Every structure is written in C-alpha cells, then in structure tokens.
C-alpha cells in the first residue's frame, strides 16, 4: 500500500466536511469573524436557503490589503500566535479554518477595507485564487459565498429544502444576536427581512426582537456571582409562567460563545424542578463568564461544545443563579376587563333541553361561539332560580362542597336522587390492586345502569360517588380528557371536527423551526379544526380553533401542538393525529382543583358511565378507582 500526501485542495475539502456542515455553518463562521473584527452592525443576506448565495457584511476593522490572499490559506489567523495563547482564547474564531474550508467548496468573494488603507477584492473558487485587486468600498468586510457545495455533490444530497436551510441560518443568527446585544444584526432571506435587532446593548431588547413581546415580557433577569470561583452567570430566564414542550428556547453561552453543554442544561432544569409541569422545559438565555484558562473551547470541530476544568462548580453556580432569580416574586398582570370564565364543555351537545341550556350559558359567557339551542337563551327569573335552589336543597341533603349559582341553576332539572336501599346491583368491579397493604378496587363504571349517588368533591379534583358497596373516586380531569379525546377522535375519522371561528384573529409569533413545522402541516391542522394562515415573518394568524378550545387558550394550545409535531417528525400520520388530539383534549378538559357544580359533576359521571373507553385518560392514568366497604370497616375496627 502506497502512502502519499494529499493535495492542499483535497485536504481543504475534507476539512470543509467538518467545519462546513450546511449553509448555517457558513453564516455562523462568517458572523463570528465579523464579531471578532469589532463590528457594531452585521447583515446576513441569503438567496435559495444560502446555497445559491450567502453574504455577510460588517462595519468592523477590515483586513489589511496585503493580507487578503493570506486569509484564505489554511490555518492562517490573526487571533493567536503561540501555544500559550490557547490557554486564554477570548475570540470566537482562532483556528484559521473557516475561509479556507468555505472557499474549498464554493466561490467566495471578499471585499474588505481598513481605515486609512485601500479596499481590496479577492475571489477564490474551489480553493483557487481567481482575482485579487484594489476596489473602492467602505470600511469593513463583505464576504459573499455562491454555489455552496457545487463540487461536492455527496454533501448536497443530505441538505434539506431551501426554506428549511434558511430556518437553520435564521436560528444561528438569533443565537448570535442574543450573545451580542451590543451588535445590531439584520437577516434577510430572499429579499425579506426576518430579523433586526437594535444593538443597544440591552439583552431584553434583543430578546424582544427575536422572540416577540409575549415571551420577552415574561423573562426574568439573572445576575449572580460566585465569589469563590469568580464565575459570573447572567442572562434571562422564563420564570415559572413561561415554558415549552422542548428545549428550542434555551440558549447557553460561555464567554459569549454559543455552546451546547449538558452540565448547564441539567443545572437549569434541576433549579426549575417542581416549579413547571413535568415534561416541560424552561425558557432561558444563560451566559457564563469564566476565566478562559478554565475552559477548553477546542474540543469540537464546530466549537459547539466546550470542556470545563471543574464541571461541579459550573453546575452549582448555574443552579443557584437560576434559583435566586426565581426567588424574586413576580406576578403576571391580567387586565380584569379581559378576563373570561373558564369553558367547561362537560354537557354533551344535543343532549336535551337541560344540556342545551347549560351549553348556551358556557358559550355565551366565554365568547367561544359553540352551537346552542336558542330556545333556552332567555335568562330565568329570580323566582325560578329560587324554586330550583329549594328543590335541589331538598334532594341533596348529604351533598357537600358544591356551589349552585345562577347559571348552574338553569342547567339541569335532575330527577330526585334514589335512596341507597333502592339502588340496583352494584357496579361490576375489575381487578383488585394491593397498595401498601390496603385493598383498592379499580371500577370500570362502564356497565352500570344507574344506582349511584354523588356525595361530594375531594380536593376539588376527585368526584366522590357512593356506589353499592364501594366508594368510587373519579379523577375529573382524566375523565373529561378521555371523553373529549374520544369525541374528537370519532369526529376526526368522520372529517367532522368543526372549527370555531374567532371574531378577531390571534397572532402567534414562532421560531423559524416552529413556523416551518406549522406551515408544513397546515392542511393536516385544518382537518383537526385549526384555521391558520401565514401572517408575516415566522408569524401565524389563528382564525379558527377546534370547538372545544377557548380563545384564551388558543395560542398556548397551538404552540404545544406544534412542539408535539416537531418532537414526532418521524411519526406516522396516525401518531401525529393522536398526539395533537391528546394535547387539545388535555388543554380543554376540566383541570384538577377546579370546583365543579353539582350538575357538572352529574353530567361528567353520567358520560363516564356511558363510555366504553373511560377507564384511563389518553396518557394511561386511571379515570376511576374504588375503595371497598370492607376496607373502610377494617379501618374503623368494625371487622
């Protein structure tokens, strides 16, 4: 076997495979050069997802005219000169690989000028110098990359659609914008401006430009210094009211270098443990300032990962920085004029006069516009309400912890509750489960034909039902979630999920990746009751929602739906449909700790009893469980 030295051109192409993975890699490397050059303004313009053309323009210090050709040589850099410099790297670029690697797989045109020097244009294609001569231009540098990967078709076939690649570039620019709020970044894709940050040095201003008002207004500042180690942790976090189903809104920086680091991620999420729902992730822009000698930034080809000298100190500092920020009491401000009562669509549509009346009241008060029977739209008189309360009082002497108000009064004229001795055969029970020495029996409730009595609500979460020889507890959220899911699933298969049109559209700002996922699935979402349209850059207008969703929950629910689509990119259509319907059902169902009125509880239990599948919620939690009379009597030493 012969051993031979690779040609410089081939060596550069191989190196490009490590440094230049896709157009976003090019944008990142060139922007980092602009930042190192002291620029206060950086503009990134692309055509065709960055493959056809990508240019980065800055107002930095520029390159000396004698060095423009040298800059394209491999391992040529102005940022380090000795081995000792590797222990104190503060610049983003230092290896001198970017321009050489990019020029090996594309045509690169660089125009640069230093203050007091002549400008110069240099053109390199596939590693070969084509042109280098003086030119008139302003102080700063513009690098234009055309026909990326034109000579490496193997790399081209692994790239995605143009708008997907454009989204990756946009995300890269966003990360850099948040790292350097003192720099004004501008990103233009196919002639449309997607990003513009003010460059005023205020991180919250940059976050506003990147994430919009809804997110930035909820961000909490982080400012922590560990005196012992000299570590400084700064940035912004989302507090306890802002979180996502994935980590798409988490950005971490070490000495203003955007990184991916498991230690920081774990510390952040541990600090939030117990403060946000399980399965959700906090929003964070965290910046770690550390002595450069205590971190190795040269362990990853794209410099995305770093290695800390003392990982435990980093973990501790980030953990306490976040904890301290969360300890500041913050309360979201809600305009009382905009508050709407929660929508409870427990009573089924078309289930008789009582249900129609109650459904009308819920729809009217929430402004959700559900279908209702106009026959029952008239408000009952005070005399009717008084008579109803008296009637209900006589029927429910042993019922506690329920509020009967004006709206629930007209909801349903119930039949008198049968006495316990008149009950029919007790509910058929299923498998007996042993829990810490006590005997619990899971009740299916599915074959019961009456013979039960609702006796209250426990912890505003569980409906208590006396049923023959059992005390049955029904989880109101799990039960309602299963009922809504089964109804939506049936209507989805029949193509009958009716959108509820909003009087005024809700505008939702998304990240580039989220927007792409939503646009790719617009038709699919439409079949599931969402009426959406593109409304500017990375923005959707929500014009209609599934009828079970209230206007107030529209944006949060859609965001969660899109996150689910992103997490299940490789899933089948059926799996995606299930995931979306789970989300909608969970969002629209009665929550734990919601106080139910008696008619609501009665209707919910009735529907559970009539359903064949209301045994578990869509996530697998049991809907109902029962405690036997025998077990209770053992507790009181009766047996």
Q: Topology, please?
A:
Elements: H1 8-19, H2 23-36, E1 41-47, E2 53-58, H3 98-104, E3 107-113, E4 120-125, E5 128-134, E6 140-146, H4 153-156, H5 162-179, E7 184-189, E8 192-196, H6 203-211, H7 213-216, E9 220-226, E10 231-237, E11 243-244, E12 250-254, E13 257-259, H8 262-271, E14 281-282, E15 284-289, E16 295-296, E17 307-308, H9 311-327, H10 353-366, H11 382-395, H12 406-409, E18 429-435, E19 438-443, E20 453-458, E21 462-467, E22 470-475, H13 476-493, E23 499-509, H14 512-520, H15 522-527, E24 531-534, E25 539-546, H16 554-567, H17 573-588, H18 598-610, E26 624-628, H19 629-635
Parallel strand pairs: 1-7, 12-15
Antiparallel strand pairs: 1-2, 2-6, 3-4, 3-6, 4-5, 7-8, 9-10, 10-15, 11-14, 12-13, 16-17, 18-19, 19-26, 20-21, 21-22, 22-26, 23-25, 24-25
Please provide a written account of the structure.
This protein is of the alpha+beta class and 639 residues long. The protein has 3 domains: 8-200, Heat Shock Protein 90; 218-327, Ribosomal Protein S5, domain 2 (2-Layer Sandwich), CATH 3.30.230; 421-639, MutL, C-terminal domain, regulatory subdomain (Ribosomal Protein S8, Chain: A, domain 1, 2-Layer Sandwich). It is built from 19 helices and 26 strands. The strands form 6 sheets. Strands 5-4-3-6-2-1-7-8 form an 8-stranded mixed sheet, covered by helices on one side. A 6-stranded antiparallel sheet has the order 18-19-26-22-21-20. A 5-stranded mixed sheet has the order 9-10-15-12-13. Helix 8 (262-271) runs parallel beside helix 9 and helix 13 packs across helix 17 (573-588). The protein starts with 7 loop residues before the first helix and ends with a helix.
């Amino acid at each position: 076997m012969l051993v031979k030295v690779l040609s410089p051109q081939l060596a550069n192409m191989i190196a490009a495979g490590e440094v230049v993975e896709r157009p976003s890699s090019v944008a990142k490397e060139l922007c980092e050069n602009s930042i190192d050059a002291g620029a206060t303004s950086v503009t990134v313009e692309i055509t065709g997802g960055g493959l056809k053309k990508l240019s980065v323009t800055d107002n930095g210090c520029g390159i000396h005219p004698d060095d423009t050709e040298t800059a394209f040589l491999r391992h040529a850099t102005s940022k380090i000169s000795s081995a000792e410099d590797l222990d104190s790297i503060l610049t983003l670029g230092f290896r001198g690989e970017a321009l050489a690697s990019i020029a090996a797989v594309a045509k690169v045109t660089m125009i640069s000028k230093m203050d007091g020097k002549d400008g110069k244009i240099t053109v390199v294609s596939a590693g070969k110098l084509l042109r280098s001569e003086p030119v008139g231009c302003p102080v700063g540098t513009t690098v234009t990359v055309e026909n990326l990967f034109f000579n490496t078709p193997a790399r081209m076939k692994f790239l995605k659609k143009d708008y997907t690649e454009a989204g990756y570039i946009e995300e890269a620019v966003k990360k850099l914008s948040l790292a350097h709020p003192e720099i004004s970044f501008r990103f233009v894709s196919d002639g449309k401006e997607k990003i513009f940050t003010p460059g005023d040095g205020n991180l919250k201003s940059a976050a506003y430009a990147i994430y919009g008002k809804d997110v930035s207004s909820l961000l909490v500042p982080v400012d922590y210094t560990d005196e012992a180690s000299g570590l400084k942790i700064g940035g912004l976090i989302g507090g306890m009211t802002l979180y996502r189903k994935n980590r798409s809104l988490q950005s971490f920086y070490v000495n203003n270098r955007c990184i991916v680091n498991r230690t920081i991620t774990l510390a952040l999420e541990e600090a939030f443990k117990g403060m946000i729902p399980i399965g959700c992730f906090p929003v964070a822009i965290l910046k770690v300032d550390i002595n450069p000698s205590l971190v190795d930034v040269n362990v990853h080809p794209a410099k995305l990962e770093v290695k800390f000298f003392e990982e435990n100190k980093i973990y501790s500092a980030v953990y306490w920085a976040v904890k301290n920020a969360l300890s500041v009491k913050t309360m979201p401000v809600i305009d009382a004029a905009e508050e709407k009562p929660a929508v409870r669509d427990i009573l089924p549509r078309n289930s008789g006069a009582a249900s129609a009346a109650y459904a009308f009241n819920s729809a009217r008060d929430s402004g959700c516009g559900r279908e209702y029977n106009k026959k029952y739209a008239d408000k009952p008189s005070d005399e009717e309400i008084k008579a109803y309360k008296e009637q209900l009082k006589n029927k429910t002497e042993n019922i506690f912890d329920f509020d009967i108000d004006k709206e629930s009064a007209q909801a349903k004229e119930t039949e008198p509750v049968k006495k316990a001795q008149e009950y029919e055969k007790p509910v058929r029970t299923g498998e007996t489960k042993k829990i810490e020495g006590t005997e619990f029996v899971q009740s299916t409730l599915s074959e019961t034909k009456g013979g039960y009595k609702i006796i209250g609500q426990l912890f505003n979460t569980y409906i208590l039902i006396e049923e023959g020889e059992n005390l049955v507890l029904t989880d109101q959220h799990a039960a309602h979630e299963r009922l809504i899911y089964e109804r939506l699933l049936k209507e989805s298969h029949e193509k009958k999920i009716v959108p509820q049109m909003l009087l005024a559209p809700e505008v939702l700002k998304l990240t580039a990746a989220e927007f792409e996922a939503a646009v790719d699935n617009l038709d699919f979402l439409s079949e599931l009751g969402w009426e959406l349209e593109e409304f500017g850059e990375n923005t959707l207008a929500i014009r209609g929602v599934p009828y079970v969703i209230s206007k107030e929950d529209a944006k949060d629910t859609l965001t969660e739906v899109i996150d689910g689509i992103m997490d299940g990119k490789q899933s089948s259509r059926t799996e995606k449909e299930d995931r979306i319907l789970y989300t909608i059902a969970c969002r629209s169902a009665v929550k734990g700790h919601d106080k139910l009125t008696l008619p609501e509880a009665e209707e919910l239990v009735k529907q559970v009893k009539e359903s064949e599948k209301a045994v578990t919620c869509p996530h697998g939690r049991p809907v109902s469980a029962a405690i036997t009379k025998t077990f209770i009597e053992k507790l009181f030493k009766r047996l």
